Structures are given as C-alpha cells and as structure tokens.
Amino acid sequence: MSKVLNKNDFELKLRDMGRMYHIHHPFHIRMYQGECSKEEIQGWVANRFYYQTAIPIKDAAIMSNNPPLEDRRKWIDRIIDHDSVGGGIEAWLELGEAVGLKKEDLLSHKFVLPAVKFAVDAYVNFAKQSPWKEAAMSSLTEMFAPQIHQQRLDTWPKNYPWIEQKGLRYFQKRLSEARRDVQHGLSLTLEEFNTLQLQERACEILQFKLDILWTICDALYLAYELKRPPYFNIKDCHAQRKITSN
Ligand SMILES: O=C(O)c1cc(C(=O)O)c2c(n1)C(=O)C(=O)c1cc(C(=O)O)[nH]c1-2
C-alpha cells in the first residue's frame, strides 16, 4: 500500500485477502467435492477440535488485555457461543460422534498432529501477547467462514451420507454467529486501523491468521491424503496418532 485507504477501500483490501482463505486449500476442495475417505474426515474433525477448544481460550486472552467495557460485553458473547451448555464445543463433540469418533479421543487430543498444535498455539499466544485490538482483528478470517460452513451444509449430506445429520449443527450455528462477530470485528478494525502504518499492520495480521489456517490444512493433507504423518517412514513410530475409531 502506498497511501492510507478510506474505510471502504480498506474493507475491500481486507476482503480481497479471502483469495488465500483455506476454503481454497486442496484438502478442503477434496472435502467439499466428496473425495475424502472416512479416515480423512475423522482426521479433520479430530484435529479441528484442537482449534475449537483454543478459540474461547484465545478470546479469554483478548479479554485479559483489557478492552473497553463495550467491547468486553461483545467479546463475552463469543466465549459463551463456544463454551456454554449446548455451545460450539458440545456441537463439535456431536460432530465427532456423527463421524464415528469417541468423545474421549477428541477430548484427549490424541490424534492432533504436531503442526496443527503449533499453528493453533501460535494463534493463542498471539492473542496473549498482542495489544487487544490487534488480537481482536485477527479473528477477521471469519469474514470468509460463513461460505465454508454453508458449503459443508450443502454438500456433506449428499457426499457423505454415512455422517449422521445431527452432527452438522455446528456449521448451522456458526452461520449467524460468525456474521455478528464480523460486524463487530470489522467496524472496530476500520475505525481503529486508520493510518498507513496501522493498515499495513492489519494486513500482516490477517495474513498471519490465513497462514495458520492454511498450515493446518497442509498438515492434514500430508498426513491423511499423502499418508505421510510425522515419522511415517520410521518403523513403529507413527501408530500412536493413527485414527482408530470406527
Ligand atoms: O470452519 C472453518 O473454516 C472456520 C474458520 C474460522 C476462521 O476463519 O478462523 C473459524 C471457524 N470456522 C469457527 O467455527 C469459529 O468459531 C471461529 C472463530 C474464529 C476466531 O478467529 O475467533 N475463527 C473461526
């Protein structure tokens, strides 16, 4: 960028970064085209659960960095969306059951690949260590999330009829929640990141978050599509993270 953008152009610039959203990753493309095996879907659900559990922790870290009361009130809603009774974490556990994974296996994170763990932990650490406005705006990949949730709702019942329908509640639930979160996150970003330097910083942060999501998919692709999980070539060493549920 060579000069500070007005709000409209800055929003367009941020939205344009959706070209790098993980919806375009080969793993996600295969998933929505119905080409994933049961093991791949299970692997994705088990690994993504690590991201799910991290989100409210990340949001609590943002709260701990002392945003103003108005923003805290809105941020509390995000934590409730995930951690309340019947909330996102429970809905994801239902998804786990619907794809044939045991609840205790999800909760133990025993199938989580190291690269997924490192990527997700980087997100939580960023939220802990950064000024709250920077951490808040890093959630803006959610601008692109309703499309990916809708895509799953539209294609999974046809492509993966073995998945119990009740497991899809999570995606339905996120459609409206993500839109509300984005309204808040985006208006805050457009208002506060109002110099050239700050706008460049905001783009860097959004790129960091896109990198996290893409890296998660890279790890899944390597482990489940190319069948090269960590230590795959070393005798008896990768069995511990192999998906074993039915
Ligand atoms: O399924 C997806 O592809 C996807 C992506 C993202 C995202 O873009 O970070 C989120 C979610 N789902 C999601 O369900 C969710 O609750 C969520 C919260 C956040 C965040 O950064 O605060 N991202 C996402």
UniProtKB/TrEMBL annotation:
Q: Annotated pathway, please?
A: Cofactor biosynthesis; pyrroloquinoline quinone biosynthesis
**Catalytic activity from the UniProt record:** 6-(2-amino-2-carboxyethyl)-7,8-dioxo-1,2,3,4,7,8-hexahydroquinoline-2,4-dicarboxylate + 3 O2 = pyrroloquinoline quinone + 2 H2O2 + 2 H2O + H(+)
Domain Thiaminase-2/PQQC residues, every copy = 23-218
Taxonomically, the superkingdom here is Bacteria
InterPro entries (UniProt xref): Haem_Oase-like_multi-hlx, PqqC, PqqC-like, Thiaminase-2/PQQC
Q: Which GO terms describe its biological process?
A: pyrroloquinoline quinone biosynthetic process
Q: Known Pfam families for this protein?
A: TENA_THI-4
**Keywords, comma-separated and alphabetical:** Oxidoreductase, PQQ biosynthesis
The UniProt record lists the EC number as 1.3.3.11
Q: Which GO terms describe its molecular function?
A: pyrroloquinoline-quinone synthase activity
What does the similarity note say? Belongs to the PqqC family.
Please give the function described in this protein's UniProt entry. Answer: Ring cyclization and eight-electron oxidation of 3a-(2-amino-2-carboxyethyl)-4,5-dioxo-4,5,6,7,8,9-hexahydroquinoline-7,9-dicarboxylic-acid to PQQ.
Q: Under which name does UniProt file this protein? A: Pyrroloquinoline-quinone synthase
Q: Which organism is it from?
A: Halarcobacter mediterraneus
GN (gene name): pqqC
